[in-house]
Amino acid sequence: MTGYDYYPGCSLKGTGKPYEESLLAVFGALGVGLDELEDWNCCGATAYMAVDELKAVALATRNLALAERSGKDLVAPCNACWLVLNKTNHRLEDDESLQRTVCSALGATCTVPNTADKEPLTYTGTVNVRHPLDVLVNDVGVDAIAEKVTKPLEGLTVAPYYGCQIVRPLSPFDDQDNPVTMDKLLGATGCTVLEDYPFKTRCCGASQMMTMPDVGLDLVSMLLEDAVARGADVIAVACPLCQFNLEGYQPKVSNLLGEKVNVPILYFTQLIGMAMGIDHKTLGLQRSFVKVEPVLAGRSAHE
Amino acid sequence: MSESNGTPRIGVYVCHCGTNIAATIDVFAAQVAAESMPGVTISREYKYMCSDPGQEIIKEDIRELGLDRVVVASCSPCLHEETFRNAIADGGINPYYFQMVNIREHASWVHKDKAAATEKAVDLIRAAVRRVRLHEPLEARRVPIEPKVMVVGAGIAGIHAALTMANAGKHVYLVEREPSIGGHMAMFDKTFPTLDCAACILTPKMTQVRAHPNIEIMTMSEVTEVDGFVGNYTVTVKHNPRYIIEEACVGCQECIDACVFRNGKTPDEFNLGLSKRKPIYMPFPQAVPQVVLIDPDGCIEFRTGKCKKTCVEVCADRNAIDFQQEVTFEDLNVGAIIIATGFKTFDATRVPRYGYGKFDGVYTALEIERLVNASGPTEGDIVMRDGRKPKSIGVIHCVGSRDKNTNEYCSRVCCMYSLKLSHLLREKTDAEIYEFYIDMRTPGKGFEEFYNRVEKEGVHFIRGKVADVYPEAGNTGKLVLQAEDTLAGMVRKIPVDMVVLATGLEPKDDAEDVRRTFNITCSGGGFFMERHPKLAPVSTFTDGVFLAGACQGPKDIPDTVAQAGAAAAEVLALVDAGFIELEPNTAFVVEEECSGCKTCVGLCPFHAIAYDNGKAHINEVLCKGCGTCVAACPSGVIRQNLFEDGEIFEEIVGVLTNA
């Protein structure tokens, strides 16, 4: 395996730091290379797409142009980045005149990094943008991951939560209504996967949490309440914004529901890393607001 | 040709069509302009040329002035060409010595500038005057009609059409793919809004069909090929083996009891898999014909050849079981065909968020019809798949209808059948029932009244589309329906025991094959297309092929029966004429000059051109006069009546010159 280019996006360097830490640790342990794209820029996120599509596409295309030079697939772990970059590919493919406009803008303003002759940047549309769930299940394989498991998460019940962006509107690698890639990966760690968790792909509230907190809080509390009622010890996520909303507002959700909600929200890569025996600090687990260690301790107490 | 009779004497008549034409075209100026056109003997304008007095003017001029050609400038030939041809024939000259100019749809209705529109009208009249001089006398040809008829599909539409025509003395072949006639209606429990028992009103008609001396029922049969033309179709029917000799079976069903399978193992098609049947079975108790059949996939004799064949033993000297039966084909000659192939219900697994096939508590409406039915899998007891009796039920409307992800159209029957099922379920279970609807569509006799009645019976109505169905947390066995209640302005989450999906109606899976076999067309949703949505609702673009029932579009039983009656009436009108008149504007091959290149053969959309002895031959009866072959013939030896080169060129000259 030749490895992948890696587009972290802003979240994985900030609030989603543990996602990057655990992702790099797990890929490292599996021997799969991730080369961070040099001089990457903001993906524009969903907001920019909605405000000014042309500029948003141009912004995102610069990242794709940088990645195209290596010929490798580009891994984008944040769901929003993954969706924006994929959407950009689709828009460019559907609209030749947009492709021309964007490329001429790129050529006029951007050059290839580290070239003496200031070669202008361009993009022909060949980069595959991949989510780590896709890469781990379809390239690495669940069996290869299961082989590396040394500390199975037996007795731990995990609700898999995918969020909306990796299944809507595009769903190139998983079922739109009932995605299962994370279920499979979690299954390999030895934990009990809550396969009937019905809100797998429901909205986490996203930025509504800031603009319309009542709506956002309602959505998050539904996700948390149902997972807990079904016996989840942990909720696994694949997106930094989902993680932030589900974890950060638990005190407010507790007030709203009138009962204490205190459930760890972990990246699926953190859970895989734990099962592989990677130490908690490397996986960024100490950064959680709701710590997983008491849950693990409780689990061994039961055993 | 007219020139041989000396100078032509042409009459030109410009119609006002009230103000439809006269408001935009100076009809008087057009009339005056026509006076000086070559060969014109008389030119007149009149308020309504199509009226009796208008036609009378033409007839009188033919007699008084000795006219031998007529041009009428009025509306579309689709509307009144026939009217004027008849008038001219009445006047005493060949009806094809006539040319119609459409100055309404082609000029007055589509222009605003009166001067320009008038100039265009005059140009078009001049073109007609120049071409009509070359018209030749033609005769409509008559072809006799085969009086036997065929109905394809024996649901309520096919049954009603067949009975109507058979009562009028026509021999009807009633072709049905399934082992029994009856269609979907036989599966229903009650019918809305009167709550008549479906079986009570349908089975007498099924029995009538069986007993009717003029009806030949062909079950387990399909049409595979249609050849010929209106009045003279040859239809190939494929008979699939039933493995029972129909004439020998008396319907005693002793063979079913005797079958080596003690219990049924195969999902019963009629009960939609809610019960099991044996490999030898009767499709349903009231099946017509009352003859069992064998499903070779389940039968041990077919699978291993080593069955004890207790069925054959018990059948004894009746000897009705025949494991050797094979597919047979039969050619039938018929004058007209009614297609009544019906619909299929929407596959609810296509909307995964409603959980059909995933959660046991989710049912389709058709399954509920079987469940509430006294002869259904539970003998009318509302028992769910897991054995529970529902205390609360959610009904979701518009599943596979009014949804751009599936079907955009409204399936027309679901609101009403949902109300009916709610009524029946409430009557039988006393459960709380919640109907989630987008709009209540109850436009029919007694429909709104029925809606009010069901509401009074205590069924809850929530205006909102259900977003999701999911199991309630805590293993309660309930399913939660989440929807935005758009009247209350809030999101509702209602846990229920049972969910009923009001699935829409879709064209049959093989509608496209049927369409091709009968050479008809489909409209947007894939249903068969009528010739005109208002004025020819049961005809198709293929003469002699008619439509009835839901194959043409979703409709309820009253509409289906009305349409079946209409289709039967159209067939009777066609067949009882004894012959059909064919337009003479057909193409013909000047055979001595045909090089036999076959270019035309494959191009003909109506399969009217045969190739024989090195030459192309056009079947005048099949030819619709489209002109494709005329234009395509590399040697220019295919000609067409009323569209001769000379006529076309004169028309062009007329439009382009001022002479």
Quick gist of this model?
The complex is a heterodimer of chains A (303) and B (659). Chain A is α/β, with parallel strands linked by helices and 303 residues long.
The total tally of domains of chain A equals 2
Q: What is the overall silhouette of chain B?
A: globular
Number of structurally distinct domains of chain B: 5
Question: Proportion of β residues of chain A?
Answer: 5-15%
Strand percentage of chain B lies at 15-25%
CATH architecture grouping of the largest domain in chain B: 3-Layer(bba) Sandwich
Report the CATH C-level class of the largest domain in chain A: Alpha Beta
CATH topology of the largest domain in chain A: Rossmann fold
Output the strand order for the largest sheet of chain B. 10-7-6-18-29
Strand runs of chain A, count: 8
Summarize the largest interface: chains and residue counts. A-B, 9 and 7 residues
Radius of gyration of chain A: 20 Å
Give the helix level of chain B as a range of percent. Answer: 25-40%
SS element count, helices of chain A: 14
Taking pLDDT < 50 over at least 5 consecutive residues as the criterion, the unreliable ranges of chain B are none
Broad shape of chain A: globular
CATH architecture of the largest domain in chain A: 3-Layer(aba) Sandwich
Total strands of chain B: the figure is 34
Assembly status: heterodimer
The largest sheet of chain A has its strands arranged as: 2-1-3-4
Topology, please?
The complex is a heterodimer of chains A (303) and B (659).
Chain A: E1 4-6, H1 17-30, E2 34-36, H2 45-51, H3 53-68, E3 74-75, H4 79-94, H5 96-109, E4 129-130, H6 132-140, H7 142-148, E5 157-160, H8 181-188, E6 192-193, H9 208-211, H10 213-229, E7 234-237, H11 240-248, H12 250-257, E8 265-267, H13 268-275, H14 293-302
Parallel strand pairs in A: 1-2, 1-3, 3-4, 5-6, 5-7, 7-8
Helix pairs in contact in A: 1-13, 2-3, 3-4, 3-5, 4-5, 6-7, 6-8, 10-12
Chain B: E1 10-15, H1 27-35, E2 40-46, H2 52-65, E3 69-74, H3 77-91, E4 98-102, H4 104-108, H5 114-132, E5 141-144, E6 149-152, H6 156-167, E7 172-175, E8 190-191, E9 196-197, H7 198-211, E10 215-218, E11 221-229, E12 232-239, H8 254-258, E13 266-267, E14 276-277, E15 280-281, E16 293-294, H9 300-304, H10 310-315, E17 328-334, E18 336-339, E19 343-345, E20 362-364, H11 365-372, E21 392-399, H12 414-429, E22 432-437, H13 447-456, E23 460-463, E24 466-471, E25 479-485, E26 490-496, E27 498-503, E28 505-507, H14 511-518, E29 545-547, H15 557-576, E30 579-582, E31 587-589, H16 599-603, E32 609-612, E33 615-618, H17 628-632, E34 638-640, H18 645-656
Parallel strand pairs in B: 1-2, 1-3, 3-4, 6-7, 6-18, 7-10, 18-29, 20-27, 21-22, 21-27, 22-23
Antiparallel strand pairs in B: 5-30, 8-9, 11-12, 12-17, 13-14, 15-16, 19-28, 24-25, 25-26, 31-34, 32-33
Helix pairs in contact in B: 1-5, 2-3, 5-18, 6-7, 6-15, 11-12, 12-13
